[in-house]
Amino acid sequence: MANVPHQFEKFTSREEKAVLMIGAGMSYGLVPMANELKKSLELVTNNLPIEDDELLTEPDPYKYADIVLKHIPDQDKLVLVQNMGIINNPKWFAKVGLPLRGTTPRHRVVARFARENLLHEIWSYNWDTVLESAFEAVGFTRGRKDAIKQPWNTLFDTIITHDDLTATPTDGFFKVYKPHGCLHAMKKAQELQTSNPTESKKIADRFMIGEEELSLIKPWITTEPGSTFLSLMHTSLIHPVIVVGWSLPEKYMHNKIGNKMVSIQAEIEHLSIVDPQFNDKGHQIICEHYGLQQDDTHFSIDKDFSTDNLFLALQTKYSLKQLLNNTDEGSNEWKTIQNVLSQCDLGNAKNAHISWADDFLPAWVRLCWRTEHLTVRAFNSFDIRLEKQDVHVPYDGIVGTLRIDMEMAATIFHHIQNSKTNWDFSTFPGGLWDYENSRLVIPLPNATFSTLHVIKPLVKMIEEKAAYITRIALMPITHTSLQCSSNTLLLQYSMKQIFTKPQFVRKGFCWESTNNLIDYEDII
What is the pLDDT of residues 444-477, one digit of tens each? Predict the structure, then answer.
């Protein structure tokens, strides 16, 4: 079992919002790390007439950057980044190298948590925009324009300069602080280079890359982004802090946390450090700030328990608690969920539960909202980009709304836990795949559908893998508030019109219907 010092009970119960602080480890395996960046810096010496004997012997990438900058007129960061070849590299913008769903599990879950309003804000010390791409995938829009009124966060933007901090956000706006700069901002600086060179340089100067500017001797720590750290000092006292893949190597951070921020005696869950190793300098400083010890805070990450594993397990625990909140206490469904939840250890979460929470539940909730049967007075459900493959409809946040989608999900979960079949939830998100018997069960709200667009995303995935399926069974999930469809055969017929692949009319393929997964096991 992995080393898990605490179980995030308050966080997953929505009792406390967390501040997430992420470093290079969050992007590990996706973008070059610090040592690899030296190769990009060497491109600058090739692209620009820079000659310095120190460059031949300096192994440290940050000190190497200091030397290179001294040879660039006005130490122009935009010139530096353009010649490093990273400003248009698709890796840094999550355009290549990621799964078809567009995000890694850790980034996807963090973005969903921000959408669920579980996070207060994020502090990212990375230049890449992998996290921001995940935000857009789950339904966020970048920018500060007025948001379409919804019960959860809909907008996000990055805080780079003091001007960004002072811009008045709207409701539903989520902040991602990036005090070391951002390649998305560098693209903006590039666009402003001719029309507004002063603003362009102001943005570009926020790109922190040299050792000197990450130390205590540069004046920017008291101006930009020094003022933004007032926010960090305040929120870190009120909200739990989760540090992911960041060893806090910067000397100015040691000064801010060790000397400027008020120390407190915190509860164990107030600080979580997710990293392969416990850094005796940076990590120890933040632990001392909260009066906590390594054993109380450090989640040791390795090949057997990765950052992805931890965030997927957190998502599972949170999802089960939300199911429980939407189920009648004492019912069979409630007892099943409570039993699974009581055994849900973050260091040893079951893969089946993780996949159900990550693949099935979000797809099911999207499907229910597409049926137009979930009435919400505060906003129009059509405003949610439900056609997007990974858009996330939060499980909480609508006061006075009956979440029948979550109630029906609890029914499905109860059936699954009492089923003898080893269900696969990832092959057809939103469907239940019986790999051993090549049969697919499609749970559907037992309601009258005005249009079958509600299942088109699932249909598309089914069509791509039609050759592997021998039978498809429809499983209506009932709820008293829905107007029930009395003609399952009509629904079957309508669905067949969507499936245009020849494989669905081949000999040996058949359609079925079932009332629940127990009956389904009887008919196969």
Answer: 887 655 556 667 777 777 777 877 888 888 787 8
Question: Which of 1.10.1740, 2.60.120, 3.40.50, 3.30.43 is the CATH number of 9-31+103-300?
Answer: 3.40.50
Cα angle: 467, vertex 354, 424; to 5 degrees = 20
For the chain, what are the domain ranges? 9-31+103-300, 34-92, 321-523
CA distance 277 to 283: 9
Q: Is the pLDDT of residue 485 over 70?
A: no
State the pTM of this model: 0.92
64-104 pLDDT, tens digit per residue, is 999 999 999 888 999 999 999 999 888 899 887 776 566 79
Q: Tell me, letter by letter, the H, E, C secondary structure of 81-137.
A: HHHHCCCCCHHHHCCCCCCCCCCCHHHHHHHHHHHCCCEEEEEECCCCCHHHHHHHH
β-sheet bridge partners, residue 302: 305
Give the SS3 label for residue 445: strand
Residues in the chain: 524
